[in-house]
């Protein structure tokens, strides 16, 4: 637990007396209340998250999630003491119980990730179909995915949904995995902080929640697909700022890390999409790579000429 103002560690957030009166703890470092969000409504907390208030992020990541993980850890140890492991216990039963406990421990994070992926699948599906039907070139959009859409549009609705589900899940897994690995290996914060993986995961989740806002565009459609691309860039800016708030690292180091993550994720995703495209068309993988490179060059050249 930390003070959301100065990030100094603290032992308690509040003191609860016998008459149900709650007194917030005062920080020994900055002499302000350690975490006023303990008494704030969730709606106001959500608004402060959208406004990128540092205290809101620190409250959820350090004083809410970490405390929950610590309490589950103690509860799990207590269960292990009451129900000791015996050699006669079937391994399958132990494995199932461990998996159940893992899902129970990270219940909130898993629920939010599933919700985010479900929305992202639908939005990606709508966006790619819009690009395919309007033939509109979107800067920095995947050329390989646009080529594959020629064949994906011939599939039935279930097959299309499963394709975009696999694509979005893989995209999120790669982004999540590379970000966690680089944060823990490059940043001093990742090496000295307990629950650093969970903290980064929750921070990414909270910042990426803005990506579901284009759902409103399906109700009140915009004139072109660029609006969705702008929303993605806003989500990236939210991610940079939220990582800065939580890790106290410099903007330069965070942006370097995210650029490397983007390049790794982009490369792997495009290789896999090209491999799938080669399987469908029966063409050589190298031929498809050359087609993608030529179309990417043409798209960037057109984009630069329009800017100039």
From TrEMBL:
Entry keyword annotation includes Lipid metabolism: yes
Claim: Disulfide bond is one of the keywords in the record: no
Chief location category: endoplasmic reticulum
Subcellular location(s) per record: Endoplasmic reticulum membrane; Golgi apparatus membrane
Keywords: Endoplasmic reticulum, Golgi apparatus, Lipid metabolism, Lipid transport, Membrane, Sphingolipid metabolism, Transmembrane, Transmembrane helix, Transport
Membrane-traversing stretches: 109-126, 161-179, 199-222, 257-279
InterPro entries in the record: Arv1 (IPR007290)
Name of the molecule in the record: Protein ARV
Organism whose genome encodes this protein: Candida glabrata (Yeast)
Lineage: Eukaryota, Fungi, Dikarya, Ascomycota, Saccharomycotina
């Amino acid at each position: 637990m930390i003070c959301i103002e100065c990030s100094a560690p603290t032992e308690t957030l509040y003191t609860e007396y016998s008459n149900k009166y709650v007194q917030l703890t005062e920080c020994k470092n900055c002499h302000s209340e350690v975490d006023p969000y303990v008494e704030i409504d969730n709606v106001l907390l959500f608004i402060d998250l959208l406004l990128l208030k540092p205290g809101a992020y620190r409250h959820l990541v350090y004083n809410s999630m970490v405390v929950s993980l610590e309490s589950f850890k103690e509860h799990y140890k207590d269960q292990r003491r009451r129900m000791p492991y015996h050699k006669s216990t079937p391994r399958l039963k132990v494995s199932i119980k461990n998996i159940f406990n893992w899902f129970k421990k990270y219940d909130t994070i898993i629920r939010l990730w599933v919700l985010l992926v479900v929305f992202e699948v639908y939005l990606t599906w709508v966006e790619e179909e819009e690009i395919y039907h309007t033939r509109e070139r979107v800067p920095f959009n995947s050329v390989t995915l646009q080529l594959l859409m020629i064949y994906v549009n011939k599939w039935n609705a279930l097959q299309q949904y499963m394709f975009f589900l696999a694509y979005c899940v893989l995209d999120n897994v790669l982004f999540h995995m590379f970000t966690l690995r680089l944060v823990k290996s490059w940043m001093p914060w990742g090496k000295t902080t307990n629950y650093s993986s969970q903290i980064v995961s929750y921070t990414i989740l909270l910042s990426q929640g803005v990506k579901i806002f284009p759902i409103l565009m399906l109700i009140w459609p915009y004139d072109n697909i660029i609006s969705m691309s702008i929303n993605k860039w806003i989500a990236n800016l939210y991610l940079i700022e939220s990582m800065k708030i939580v890790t106290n690292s410099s903007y330069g180091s965070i942006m370097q890390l995210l650029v490397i993550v983007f390049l790794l994720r982009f490369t792997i995703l495009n290789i896999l999409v090209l491999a799938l495209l080669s399987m469908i068309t029966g063409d050589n993988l190298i031929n498809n790579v050359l087609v993608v490179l030529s179309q990417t060059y043409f798209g960037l050249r057109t984009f630069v000429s329009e800017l100039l």
